[in-house]
Design goal:
Elements lengths: L3 H13 L21 E5 L2 E4 L4 E4 L14 H11 L10 H13 L5 E5 L2 H16 L3 E5 L12 E3 L7 E3 L6 H4 L2 E4 L4 H10 L4 E6 L15 H12 L2 E5 L11 H6 L5 E5 L9 E5 L1 H4 L18 H11 L4 H24 L5 E5 L2 E5 L8 H5 L3 H13 L2 E2 L8 E2 L6 H17 L11
Parallel strand pairs: 3-15, 5-8, 5-9, 9-10, 10-11
Antiparallel strand pairs: 1-2, 2-3, 4-12, 6-7, 11-12, 13-14, 14-16
Helix pairs in contact: 2-10, 3-10, 6-7, 11-14
The structure holds ligand KE4.
Length: 436
């Protein structure tokens, strides 16, 4: 595929934008090569600046569940823009979207909007700290909750699970309040509570993980978090920025029947416009300013265009559409698994609704250590082989993939065929898996 204009665009971007991108993962560092510069997108397809067309399985990292430029969403945005783009006042559009979220998400009585998932999770942690009067919180290795300081922490060597910054600029003092434990390890969570009696405000978790690749909770893990947080007086926060209105209308909590104290949302609820939200029981949410004393603010929080795009998107998602997406997702991962098996490539696949993932690894991946043991070099080569065939997967093994209402069975089947062709063409390097 000719991507000369993307290469020129990348060179031009790097002159005025650090790394040529406005979000790190877009730079293709995990898979190598030049990032694709997109000119436009329609339905399930991206079109790059060279005119190449790709079937899109990233969907802007989740938001575009209705497909790109869906007519109902575009029309809603046109109408909203003609009324102005931001007022800095309350609007009924915010209440309208809040009503939809409260009705759909089982644990949410009240919700506050902001402009990104990062803001949502950072505010949720502040609220949990304000509500409990405690300062530490537990997060899981490999779970990503946005780019605010308290989350940019890696597992430290300390037996107390004390974290260490994994970005320059994050103060050590901040890291001390972030406790890191392995995903799916309920015993490590209990140990963290026992080592930090009365100090832990919350446990925040991606209930289905999309940020180390797709990793699902082991049976009972989410229930164990619910039990332990109640037992130790901490709040349970489900970070459903990626899974909210994606794996089910009510998110993971609706599928699994585990109700957190706070839920963070983003992506789908904004239909591709900047949005974030956090919600929970009224007695917690009412601790927020102006009624309470936990401060939150944002110039564009609840922006009318984001509300319009979010409402138009959520109105397209009925029970039947979630069933349709579930079926498509399963068809895809079954087809990919068959291809990987046929080509003798060790693999594991996971799907929930319209979110799915795969690792080139022997056996299921249940935590970050397992994800890191997968063949990421092969993933990078597979990514490019599929890109050259017109299929856009995440430019990193440690991401999930997504489907939209615009994806059809025919396109799923074409993807599976292309995957078989791609693996047949790949010349496994000595250190990669040998295709038997
Ligand atoms: P944003 O600040 O990027 O809107 O949301 C942060 C966030 C919070 N929680 C979860 C579970 C998330 O997946 C995210 C953001 N996801 C990444 C994709 N892995 C966004 C892509 C990017 O960083 O460019």
């Amino acid at each position: 595929m000719n991507r000369q204009r993307s290469e020129a665009a990348f060179a031009a971007a790097k002159r005025v934008i650090p790394g040529g991108v406005n979000s790190t993962v877009r730079a293709f560092r995990a898979v190598g090569g030049t990032p694709v510069f997109v000119r436009e997108a329609h339905g399930a397809y991206l079109v790059d600046v060279d005119g190449n067309r790709y079937l899109d399985y990233v969907l802007s990292w989740g938001p575009m569940i209705a497909g790109h430029a869906h007519p109902a969403v575009v029309e809603a945005l046109h109408r909203a823009a003609e009324r102005g783009t931001s007022y800095g006042t309350p609007t009924e559009y915010e209440t309208e979207l809040a009503d939809v979220i409260v009705e759909a998400v089982p644990s949410v009585d009240k919700v506050r909007f902001c402009s990104s998932g990062t803001e949502a999770t950072a505010n949720a942690i502040r609220l949990a700290r304000g509500y409990t009067g405690r300062e530490k919180f537990i997060k899981f290795e490999g779970c990503y909750h946005g780019s605010a300081d308290p989350f940019l922490i890696a597992a430290g060597s300390s037996a107390l699970t004390m974290g260490v910054p994994n970005s320059l600029g994050v103060p050590a003092a901040t890291a001390q309040d972030t406790l890191i434990v392995p995903y799916n390890d309920a015993a490590a969570v209990r140990a963290a509570f026992e080592h930090n009696p009365g100090e832990i405000a919350a446990v925040i978790v991606e209930p289905y993980v999309g940020n180390m690749g797709m990793v699902l909770p082991l049976p009972g893990f989410l229930h164990a978090l619910r039990t332990m947080t109640r037992e130790y007086g901490a709040l349970l926060i489900f970070d459903e920025v990626m899974t909210g209105f994606r794996v089910a209308r009510g998110g993971v909590q609706a599928r699994e029947g585990v109700l957190p104290d706070l839920t963070t949302l983003g992506k789908v609820i904004g239909g591709g416009l900047p949005v974030g939200a956090f919600g929970g029981r009224a007695e917690i949410m009412d601790r927020l300013t102006p009624d309470g004393q936990v401060f939150q603010a944002g110039t564009l929080s609840g922006n009318p265009l984001a509300m319009a795009a979010g409402l138009a998107t959520l109105r397209l998602l009925g029970d039947d559409t979630f069933l349709q997406l579930e079926r498509l997702g399963q068809r895809l991962v079954d087809g990919m698994a068959e291809v990987f098996t046929g080509r003798g490539v060790p693999h594991t696949v996971a799907a929930a609704g319209s979110m799915f993932g795969f690792f080139f690894a022997d056996g299921p991946v249940t935590d970050l250590a397992g994800a890191k043991r997968s063949d990421t070099a092969l993933y990078g080569r597979f990514f490019h082989a599929m890109l050259d065939r017109g299929f856009y997967f995440a430019p990193s093994q440690f991401e999930a993939a997504f489907l939209s209402l615009a994806h059809t069975e025919a396109e799923i089947d074409r993807t599976v065929e292309a995957a078989d062709d791609a693996l047949a063409a790949l010349r496994p390097a000595q250190d990669d898996v040998v295709c038997r």
